[in-house]
Each structure stands twice: as structure tokens, then as C-alpha cells.
Specification:
Radius of gyration: 21 Å
Structural class: mainly alpha
Number of domains: 2
Shape: globular
Largest sheet: 3 strands, antiparallel
CATH class of the largest domain: Mainly Alpha
Helix content: 40-55%
Number of helices: 11
Length: 296
């Protein structure tokens, strides 16, 4: 299958290699084949979207799709589609690759009903938390981190970012600080920038020896005595509800970061689309349209 074929042709060909109509699906459910016309149609549509994505990002075609790129596609899709669609995409890719992929949760239902926090509100919440959770809240707001990413933070010179992506040199335009890395969804390691003040506070609580922590069934190696994961997220929501009378959840900090950065970049004369592209990479997305969800 030539790489210049359209996404539609690629997905049609890929599905044709897996279809086995006429066989009872209940008797052949584990044979790695598609036994339903409806399933074949749905999977073909899903793979068409994958083919478009990898073409846009210059990652080859469906023949050369890697598990790593497939997982990142699902991560990017998580902010755009509902859980049912995301699961269908994952199942189609699994059928195509013949491997199991990590389940990714849709962010759409959550994010469409939430709003960002102001800087003043973030400070009120942080002031109502324990010291280690308070610092985690300020860092998450300053760098736009997910809850579990707080558990993975490392100095950039100790843990370099993923090399399979092209990183924009315009990231962090207008800000100064110290560079760290975090491991996001799909295992993507990206650079983040912390203010010098927060970096100093973080280094003051560096662990003498790294420790293993488990969050939501996943093991992480933590290098700083800082809050993160589910426990921090719950602490944040509790403090927000208690002090502000409402909670948009810890993910609201990513909304805040994205919106603040968009304002900063546009004030420096960068147009909206370019600013969105920069922010997309700063929050760990490579599809700038995905970032639109954070700007609501």
C-alpha cells in the first residue's frame, strides 16, 4: 500500500485484511478478526482518522504506525471526543496493530463543564492546603501540569524530553525560569518551565533517595517530597470547595495556565493560531485544536 494513498484508502485496505464475515463472532471472538459489517464500518472510520493524524504529523502511514504514536493519538483525541468514541478508536487501532493499548479517559465531558481559576483563587486554595500539597498546586498552575505529572517531575538535564517529537523553539516565550521535565499521557516526556522561586522551593524538598509511589494503579519514581496524583487532586478539590464554595477540580489549573499563556503570547504580538500551537506543546498536546478545549 503506497504511502501516498488517501486516509480513506489506507483505512479501507487495513480493514480488508482483518474482515472475516460469515463466521459466528461468538465462536471466533478471540481470533483477531472482524465478523460484523457494522464493526468493520466503524473501525474503518476510526482508522481513517488515525491515517489523517499521522499524515498531518509526518509520521508515515497506517503501515508504519507505532504503538507510541497510536497512544499519543488517543491522548490528543481525549480532549475532543466522548469516551465511547475514544474507546472505539482504541479498539480499531488494537485490531490493526494486534496489540493492547493503554486505556485513555476522555477529558471532553469533564472539561466542557468546567472553568479556570483566577490567580487569586489559586492562591486562596493553596493557602488552605498542607505545605506539600500547596507547593504542588502552585507548580501545577505555573506549568500547566496534570495531577500524575507532579509525581514525575525531574530537572531537564537529568531526564531529557522525548526525541520522537519536534519541539518548538518558541515554547516558554515571555517567561523565565528553570526547565524540568514531566511524563505525561502516553509516556510523552516534555519540558516544562518553573519560575525561579518555585524551582528553589522544589529543590529544597528533593529526596535523598528516589521513592516509588503508586497512583491509580500506576507506579512512579518520585524525586521530590511533593503532593501529586489522586491524593493531591482530592486535597485541591476539598480546599477549593471549603474556601471558594465551589470546585472545578484540579484540572481547572490547566485551563488557567492555557488561558494565561494565550494572553501573554498575544500581548507579545503572536497571532492567535500560532499562540495556540505554542501552548499546545506546553500542555503536552501536538494537535493545537485539542488545546481549544482549555480556552473555553
Amino acid at each position: 500500500m503506497p504511502s501516498f494513498r488517501s486516509p480513506k484508502s489506507q483505512s479501507k485496505h487495513a480493514i480488508s485484511q482483518k474482515v472475516a464475515l460469515g463466521k459466528g463472532r461468538h465462536d471466533h471472538r478471540d481470533d483477531g478478526r472482524i465478523h460484523s459489517v457494522g464493526t468493520a464500518r466503524n473501525y474503518e472510520q476510526s482508522l481513517k482518522g488515525v491515517a489523517k493524524y499521522i499524515h498531518q504529523h509526518k509520521l508515515g502511514d497506517l503501515r508504519t504506525l507505532t504503538v507510541e504514536n497510536a497512544q499519543q493519538y488517543l491522548v490528543d483525541r481525549a480532549a475532543m471526543v466522548c469516551q465511547k468514541t475514544l474507546d472505539l478508536d482504541r479498539q480499531a487501532i488494537q485490531m490493526h496493530l494486534g496489540v493492547r493499548l493503554e486505556v485513555v479517559k476522555s477529558e471532553r465531558e469533564t472539561y466542557l463543564s468546567t472553568r479556570s481559576y483566577t490567580s487569586a483563587q489559586v492562591e486562596r486554595i493553596a493557602s488552605a492546603q498542607s505545605e506539600r500539597n500547596s507547593l504542588a498546586t502552585r507548580i501545577a498552575h505555573n506549568a500547566g501540569l496534570r495531577a500524575h505529572e507532579l509525581l514525575t517531575i525531574r530537572p531537564a538535564d537529568e531526564c531529557p524530553p522525548s526525541t520522537h517529537r519536534e519541539w518548538s523553539t518558541d515554547r516558554f516565550t515571555g517567561r523565565e525560569g528553570e526547565r524540568y521535565t514531566v511524563a505525561g499521557k502516553g509516556g510523552l516526556v516534555r519540558e516544562v518551565l518553573l519560575s525561579k522561586e518555585l524551582a528553589q522551593q522544589l529543590e529544597a524538598i528533593r529526596l535523598d533517595e528516589p521513592r516509588e509511589v503508586t497512583d491509580r494503579g500506576v507506579n512512579y519514581i518520585q524525586h521530590y517530597d511533593i503532593g501529586g496524583g489522586r491524593a493531591w487532586s482530592q486535597s485541591f478539590s476539598t480546599a477549593s470547595q471549603r474556601d471558594l464554595g465551589f470546585s472545578s477540580g484540579a484540572h481547572g489549573l490547566r485551563h488557567s495556565f492555557a488561558q494565561e499563556r494565550m494572553d501573554e503570547l498575544q500581548l507579545r504580538g503572536i497571532n492567535y493560531e500560532e499562540a495556540k500551537r505554542i501552548v499546545a506543546q506546553e500542555v503536552g498536546h501536538f494537535d493545537k485544536d485539542t488545546t481549544e478545549v482549555y480556552l473555553r
